[in-house]
Design brief:
The protein has a three-stranded antiparallel β-sheet. The chain has a single domain, classed as Arc Repressor Mutant, subunit A (Orthogonal Bundle). By secondary structure, it is an alpha+beta fold. Helices cover 44% and strands 15% of the residues. It has four helices and three strands. The protein is globular and about 25 Å long.
């Protein structure tokens, strides 16, 4: 499954934790340890914070859920402004 996660992130360029959970039909609590493994091995990068709607002025909102503000990028891809 780690290989599949890595592949879909490479293909799409960026995916939120929620998107990954939906795609793989798995709970965030089960997926996060796998994502931690991929981050630790240097296969993906983890981004936290920011607005899930992409609003540049947002500094985090009380209505956003954890799964929406955690995203993953393929290793070596720089964060877009």
């Amino acid at each position: 499954m780690l290989r599949d996660i890595r592949q879909i992130i490479r293909e799409r360029g960026r995916m939120s934790l929620r998107e990954l959970c939906i795609h793989f039909r798995i709970d965030a609590d089960a997926l996060e340890p796998m994502m931690d493994t991929l981050v630790r091995k240097g296969h993906v990068r983890r981004l936290e914070g920011g607005c899930p709607l992409g609003k540049a002025t947002c500094r985090g909102c009380v209505c956003a859920e954890r799964e929406d503000v955690i995203a993953y990028l393929p290793a070596g891809v720089m964060r877009r402004s």
